[in-house]
Write a structure and sequence with these properties.
244 residues, alpha/beta, eight-stranded parallel β-barrel, 15% strand, globular
């Protein structure tokens, strides 16, 4: 079972003292998370002023720093459309990447998904299909990318029409009915991070945790750093395996 550490996301620096933003901080954090049990990391590289960026140089610096400290650890980047504002500019920036991540998450609610997926795959970058709703799942089931992705990400945010686990189950039903057999990783954000993670473990899916998704540990206390969250999940994974 994969534990993926999501190190920073879109969070502001003032949201947590240990939020890693610079290449050096991301690399140090990735190493600690790997030691705690993470089998991959997901990052949002930052540029001027600590803002998220898809700039080739900034992305390369983050990737190279992590690879230097964590040889062999798979590295994933975001492709979130909000970073640049339009799919044409996003495509142009990613086309210029020369230092490549191992995989990227692609949000199927955003325009330009098929073109982006083709670009990434042609560069040899794995694609994680990010699905946050039944509508996203239906789009993915009909997409030509459905058989070409590395895994499916079932991504649940708080505040949806149903309680989080029910929302995830609805997406899963669409995937099952559509014959999708790709590996699945299920995760939640904010208040639903831990309920969704426990449901993912029960289903035997891969999991994700880190300061991007939640600032609190299982007991609702504030996490000191990313590796504390990973260690807590690694303990849950071991407990789950022991019960099977």
């Amino acid at each position: 079972m994969l534990i993926k550490a999501c190190l920073n996301g879109s969070r502001r620096p003032d949201e947590h003292d240990a939020l890693p933003l610079s290449p050096a901080a991301l690399a140090g954090d990735a190493h600690e998370c790997q030691q705690a049990g993470a089998g991959a990391v997901h990052i949002h590289p930052r540029g001027m002023g600590g803002r998220e960026t898809l700039d080739p140089d900034a992305c390369a610096a983050a990737i190279e720093a992590i690879r230097d400290q964590c040889p062999g650890l798979p590295i994933g980047l975001t492709t979130g459309l909000w970073i640049v504002g339009n799919s044409v500019q996003r495509h142009a920036l990613i086309k210029r990447w020369t230092v490549l991540p191992d995989f990227c998450s692609v949000n199927f609610a955003e325009p330009g998904t098929e073109e982006l997926g083709d670009l990434l795959l042609n560069k040899g970058i794995g694609v994680e299909a990010g699905l946050s709703s039944i509508a996203d799942a239906r789009v993915f089931v009909e997409s030509p990318l459905r058989e070409r992705c590395l895994r499916v990400l079932i991504e649940i945010e708080p505040g949806g029409p149903d309680e989080p686990v029910k929302s995830a189950a609805a997406i899963i039903r669409v995937l099952d009915a559509g014959g999708i057999r790709l590996p699945r990783l299920q995760h939640g954000l904010g208040a639903c991070a831990w309920p969704i993670l426990r449901d993912s473990l029960a289903r035997g899916y891969d999991v994700r945790i880190g300061l991007e998704d939640t600032l609190t540990l299982r007991d609702n206390s504030r996490a000191t750093k990313n590796s504390d969250l990973v260690a807590s999940v690694a303990e849950l994974v071991s407990q789950t395996a022991a019960r099977r």
